[in-house]
Amino acid sequence: MQATTLNLITAYKNFFAGRAKFPRYKSKHRQQSIQYPQNVKVLDGFIRFPGKVGKVKAKLHRNIEGAIKTVTVSLEPSGKYFASILTEAEGDNPIVSTDGQVIGIDLGLTHFAITSNGSKVSKYDNPRHLAKHEKNLKRKQKKLAKKEKGSNSRNKAKKTVAKVYERVAKSRQDFLHKLSRKLVNENQVVVVENLNVKGMVRNHNLAKAISDAGWGSFVNFIAYKLEKKGGKLLEIDRWFPSSKLCSNCYHQIDELPLDIREWTCPHCGTRHDRDGNGATNIRAEGIRMLQTDGTAVSANGGEVRPKRGRKSVLRHSPAMLEAHTLSRFDLVWVVHSLISTFKR
User: 20 to 30 A from 99, CA-CA: which of 21, 137, 171, 316?
Assistant: First the structure.
């Protein structure tokens, strides 16, 4: 009752502040949950709740550290109960540092993630979790559709379908956690694109594949893992032409349809893999953002200074990682550029 009253007070405050609509009664068919704000203890293989509930057997996924503040018990559609335990632990937050490896990540559908650390491009295949279970899901949903509404057999069939969806969700979450942990352990700064996922799913041809990929959850997992480690997550602008920009000479082409996976730079002749080139440019843009903010970057693994080529339409050019000595060729190019400027 305490938790319900607090939730109701919060709902009314949000309504009168204009942040939400008027509170409504929730349907009994939605996810059911109960919240315990106090007097919950975690024992060996048990959770003891206050009142008549008492001790309940539980599979603990990890050791509980800190003081228990709130425990929320929810009923999943598959019939399983989960207890989410919120704890408070003492300690200072780690100091954010950029002293380490910088990696750029380009998210896609054929390959879930394409990463570049400046010298090496790695590709991680998209597991397509929903596609693997679609045949099984279709068969079970057909059986569910034939059951009479309100019958016990229909309720059993609903749980069977819910178990398939739960398996898909758990496998997706497992993949995202493992990949995000690997990337965070190996790098100090992670650079990603600020994707408009809500707008992208309006494309009905790609909506299912985009939703199944879980890009938003993946970025969230990286963000909180980096925060706990003391790393830094950078999001570059969604309009940054990472795929259209040559990572060798920074010549920008006008058009690059989605069906073209490889292209050749018309200026320097470099052959590019679309996704690998995009990841390299995302990393270079992240380093430029760090240096613009006055942050020292000690990451190695590739030079990102602009070379000759058509001037980019961007307001800036990727900055170099470290100071370098001008060669004779560079000096000739600088003099030529100055002469052209004075002629204009």
Answer: 316
